[in-house]
Amino acid sequence: QVQLQESGPVLVKPSQTLSLTCTVSGGSVTAAPYYWIWIRQSPGKGLECLGAISWRGSIFYSPSLKSRTSISRDTSKNQVTLQLSSVTPEDTGNYYCNAAHAGLNYWGQGTQVTVSS
Length: 117
Fold this sequence. Notes:
Layout: E1 3-7, E2 11-12, E3 18-25, E4 35-41, E5 47-54, E6 59-61, E7 69-74, E8 79-84, E9 93-101, E10 104-107, E11 111-115
Parallel strand pairs: 2-11
Antiparallel strand pairs: 1-3, 3-8, 4-5, 4-9, 5-6, 7-8, 9-10, 9-11
């Protein structure tokens, strides 16, 4: 079974770039047909999809965050990364790595990120 573990800084200053890593075990980021998705939940808000990368390396971004988001993968490390630039306090929240495959979803535990000076 696929397991996901998010990692990255818990505190980021405004205007900086948030960088998170999702380490995948029990499966490969190149295995078909997986989609590796970044999702967040900010205080008082619902789940928000930031974007995804497919097993083929195709990348999809949320239109509302596209200008600030970059998703990539490192196949040698079996990791997927998220970068969110020019962060503001509104980017504070829990960030999750999610794997979608054959109608199933696998979730990481999530990592809390606070944007504050």
